[in-house]
Design a protein that fits this description.
Blueprint (H helix, E strand, L loop, with lengths): L3 H11 L5 E2 L16 E11 L5 E7 L10 E2 L2 E3 L7 H13 L6 E6 L3 E2 L4 E11 L11 E8 H4 L6 E7 L2 E7 L9 H15 L1
Parallel strand pairs: 1-7, 2-8
Antiparallel strand pairs: 2-3, 2-5, 3-4, 3-9, 6-8, 7-8, 10-11
Helix pairs in contact: 1-4
Length: 199
């Protein structure tokens, strides 16, 4: 028997989706150069647990040069040695949180997300079942934590906030959970999933 959360997600991923970008709320900030974007991939890992489905997220290490302390999906750049973006997402999840790729069932993708930092990020939605004891990679990940999936699938929980970036005010989505401030690309990707599930 299919888990009802799984069934809901599969139906959502079958629906058409719009584009996703850091520029959705800031169209005037999109660069006009047409510079090629660097390929990246992330794993939107959904843990189907008896106590309720949860999203697995990371808090990036505070000493990192890029995005220190931010909340993110496991993932990163697609390397030349990766067979595909999906392989890159699974490799990064193994490296960052100790998740065996064999434990993950990829059930679909979300729209490629363009970031202000020049990446084209492909989010892969994967299901995880059974026990999982995360092992954060000390050099990159400060913490691995979970958020109830129901929290991130509720559009009303998302807000649009503003902060100054490179001298101009930038708008972005945010969906805080407890001590975790989930914002930017991570929140925008989750917002897109919430909208599709709610349709």
């Amino acid at each position: 028997m299919t888990d009802p959360v799984e069934a809901k997600l599969r139906r959502a991923l079958d629906r058409p989706a719009g584009s996703s970008s850091d520029f959705d709320l800031n169209p005037g900030m999109r660069p006009a150069s047409g510079k090629p974007l660097r390929a990246a991939a992330v794993l939107v890992a959904i843990w189907l647990r008896s106590e309720g489905a949860a999203l697995v997220l990371t808090k990036r290490a505070s000493h990192l040069k890029h995005h220190p302390g931010q909340i993110a999906f496991p993932g990163g750049k697609v390397d030349l040695t990766d067979a595909s973006p999906e392989a890159a997402a699974l490799r990064e999840a193994r490296e960052e949180i100790g998740l065996d790729p064999a434990r993950v069932e990829i059930i679909g993708t979300l729209p490629v997300h363009e970031t202000v930092t020049g990446f084209a990020v492909t989010p892969f939605v994967g299901l995880l079942r059974g026990p999982f004891d995360p092992v954060p990679e000390a050099g990159e990940v400060e913490e691995v934590f979970t958020v109830p999936l129901s929290h991130t699938l509720t559009p009303a929980r998302f807000s649009i906030e503003r902060r100054r970036w490179m001298g101009v005010m930038r708008q972005y989505y945010a969906i805080p959970y407890g001590p975790y401030y989930i914002w930017g690309a991570t929140a925008r990707i989750l917002r897109g999933l919430a909208e599709r599930v709610g349709e």
